[in-house]
Each structure stands twice: as C-alpha cells, then as structure tokens.
Design goal:
Blueprint lengths: L2 H16 L3 H18 L4 H17 L5 H17 L3 H14 L6 H15 L3 H14 L6 H9 L5 H10 L1
Length: 168
C-alpha cells in the first residue's frame, strides 16, 4: 500500500524532469539556425523563412523573457529586410513598439520602422511622421542625431546629399 504513493511520487519527478522548457528549446533552435546562416551566407535566403518562423513561435509563447522576445523581433525585422520582405519587417518593428513599449529597445524598433519606410519602401510621408515621433519620444537616444539627419535629407538621393556636403 505504501509503495503506490511512492511510485506515483517517483513517476511525477521523472516525468517533470523530462519536460523541457519550450522557451529554452526554441532559443536553442534559434541559436543553431543563426549559427548555420552565419557559417554559410549562401544559405541565408533558404534558411531565413525557417528562422523567422522560430522567432515568431518564441514570441507567441507564454514562457520566455520579454527581453528575449524583443531581441528576436528586432532580429526578425533585420532578417526579413535581408530577403526583401520589408512589409513583414515593419510588422516585427510594430510588434515591439505596441507589445513592449517600455523596453529599452522600443526606440530602436521605432527608428528601424522609420528607416525601412524611408530607405527600403520610399514612403517618405510615413517615414517623416515616424522620425518626428521618434525625436519626440526619444530626443536623447543614440539614434537621435541619425534621425535628425535622415529627416533633414528625406527624399534626397545619395548624390544630392554628397553634393550638399561638398558645398559646405
């Protein structure tokens, strides 16, 4: 009679030890995929969709730290841009801005949103609004000087900007 409760308790411990933390498992899978991409840049195009799916899966978990979720969303934005998925990239930045507004990296997400709208998509009016919002919210951020420069030169080609510098 005493053995049954002991067996139940023992089996509980055995099974609970085998249950892996889903966030830790996904983080390990993400790290492995990132290493594969870093080791073989030629495989980047083929492996980025799988990596983006892992980032999204991690962010959707209840487990996992907010800091890691923000980190993965920012990386997802960069990776999506690498393969020309700029709309998807904007979505990742918007997710950081809306779901993690108090994160120290929210400023980076807002800056990257403006930059993507400006440089990658040519949506100048939207980029201007985002840059202005950035400067209001984060006037002392490391990207504030860059944002002011980009705002001042919105719509100009690289050649026009170079001529402007040469004229000074």
């Amino acid at each position: 009679m005493k053995t049954l409760p002991c067996l139940l308790l023992l089996s509980f411990f055995v099974f609970s030890c085998k249950t892996e933390n889903p966030a830790a498992k996904l983080a390990a899978e993400i790290t492995a995929l990132e290493a594969e991409i870093g080791a073989d840049p030629g495989a980047t195009q083929a492996k980025i969709p799988a990596l983006l799916a892992k980032y999204e899966e991690y962010v959707a978990l209840k487990e996992g730290s907010a800091e890691d979720k923000v980190k993965y969303l920012l990386r997802a934005g960069e990776m999506a841009a690498l393969v020309g998925q700029n709309g998807k990239s904007l979505g990742y930045y918007d997710q950081v801005i809306s779901q993690f507004p108090d994160s120290p990296k929210a400023a980076t997400a807002l800056f990257m949103k403006g930059y993507t709208l400006d440089d990658k998509l040519g949506r100048i009016d939207e980029a201007k609004a985002v840059y202005e919002e950035f400067l209001k919210k984060y006037p002392d951020d490391d990207f504030a000087d860059d944002t002011q420069f980009l705002l001042k030169n919105l719509g100009k080609t690289e050649e026009e900007i170079i001529k402007q510098f040469e004229a000074k």
